[in-house]
From TrEMBL:
InterPro entries: AAA+_ATPase (IPR003593), ABC_transporter-like_ATP-bd (IPR003439), ABC_transporter-like_CS (IPR017871), ABC_transpr_MalK-like (IPR015855), ABC_transpr_MalK/UgpC-like (IPR047641), Mo/tungstate-bd_C_term_dom (IPR008995), NA-bd_OB-fold (IPR012340), P-loop_NTPase (IPR027417). It comes from the Bacteria. Pfam families: ABC_tran (PF00005), TOBE_2 (PF08402). It comes from Vibrio xiamenensis. Keywords: ATP-binding, Cell inner membrane, Cell membrane, Membrane, Nucleotide-binding, Sugar transport, Translocase, Transport. This is Multiple sugar transport system ATP-binding protein. SMART domains: AAA (SM00382).
Length: 374
């Protein structure tokens, strides 16, 4: 195991800057997920750590050693790519042992490592099979096993589940998480899927256009996003946003007026808020309520109804909302397209954002939320 530290790391291709002033500390044994939309620089940053890309400026440390000029094979990292990249003519044993044979490891050492990795990944009974005889999930486990036998200090996984179907993704999420816990290894995992990030990570790094937008534990990012980008990216369906007018401001609460003229106080810091401003109110679909249970209500036209069995998602057209407002309710809801629907807004679950995207600090303490600095 080893820690990974990035100090003001930048990566550019010519005049195009991809990774921008990245400062990050990953502790020994942490499971850290890099998440963000396509093109935000996740894989590029991972490849810089692996040594497959040169760092333009800044410093990279693995453990106590500066790695900027160290070749990939000597960094003590193992990488699992999006593609399985298995040799189709070799059986599983030979696929997993290929790197060790190139390194001229002894036959006894190769057998020991491959058998140990196969046992951990539940592949022992498949070692004589070729990749074409395996399922997608089994092939992905072989790719992980090939990295595991090299006994790296740091595991790097670049969207390893993106080629799998939905059911296999759920299964492999669980298997990778259990593997990391069992080995106690340092693991950095790249994905664009925020559900994977929320369910697997000890710590999430949200990237936006090359910058680190926020670092925190999964529920910290979900309940206390530092900006509108993180608020909209973390959570599925995404957070609803609507324009509000600021009527009054106090140190620990702000009074907002929504589009139908209803006003209510929300428990956020008023330190950076001024009366008369236009700001953006955010509330998650699963936090909206029935009207009788809420601090404020708003009505809209039902545009789409998604009845999923375990829950119903209603897309509504509301005045002053940036897009269709999504209302999410467990079980079924008797509503159809074209209906009018009134929904309730709980003040303590609201977020407030400035025009530049900065969030006002939420002061309501959610149960079970741990912070990195706790």
């Amino acid at each position: 195991m080893a820690s990974v530290t990035l100090k003001n790391v930048c990566k550019a291709y010519g005049d195009v800057l991809i990774s921008k002033n990245v400062d990050l500390e990953i502790k020994e044994g942490e499971f850290v997920v890099f998440v963000g939309p396509s093109g935000c620089g996740k894989s590029t940053l991972l490849r810089c750590i692996a040594g497959l890309e040169d760092i333009t400026s800044g410093d990279l440390y693995i453990g106590e050693e500066r790695m900027n000029d160290i070749e990939p094979s000597k960094r003590g990292v193992g990488m699992v790519f999006q593609s399985y990249a298995l040799y189709p003519h070799l059986n599983l044993y030979d696929n997993m042992s290929f790197g060790l044979k190139l390194a001229k490891a002894s036959k006894n050492e190769i057998d020991k490592r491959v058998e140990h990795a196969a046992d951990i990944l539940q592949l022992s009974h498949l070692l004589d099979r070729q990749p074409k005889a395996l399922s997608g999930g089994q092939r992905q486990r072989v790719a992980i096993g090939r990295t595991l036998v090299s006994q790296p200090n740091v595991f790097l996984l670049d969207e390893p589940l993106s080629n799998l179907d939905a059911a296999l993704r759920v299964q492999m999420r669980s298997e990778i998480t259990k593997l990391q816990r069992k080995l106690g290894c340092t693991m950095i995992y790249v994905t664009h899927d925020q559900v994977e990030a929320m369910t697997m990570a000890d710590k999430i790094v949200v990237l936006d256009a090359g910058f680190v937008s926020q670092v925190g534990k999964p529920l910290e990012l979900y309940h206390y996003p530092e900006n509108r980008f993180v608020a909209g990216f973390i959570g599925s369906p995404k957070m609803n946003f609507m324009s509000v007018f600021i009527e009054e401001v106090e140190a620990e609460r702000v009074k907002v007026q929504i589009s139908n003229g209803t006003s209510f106080w929300i428990p956020v810091s008023g330190e950076t808020v001024e009366r008369g401003q236009r700001m953006s109110l955010g509330v998650r679909p699963e936090h909206l309520l029935r009207p009788e249970d809420a601090d404020a209500t708003i009505e809209g036209d039902v545009m789409i109804v998604e009845k999923l069995g375990n829950e119903t998602q209603v897309y509504m057209n509301l005045e002053a909302a940036d897009a269709d407002v999504i209302y999410r309710q467990p079980d079924t809801l008797d509503v159809e397209v074209g209906d009018k629907l009134e929904i309730g807004i709980p003040a303590h679950r609201c977020h407030l954002f400035h025009s530049d995207g900065r969030a006002c600090q939420r002061l309501f303490r959610e149960k079970g939320v741990e912070f990195l600095d706790d």
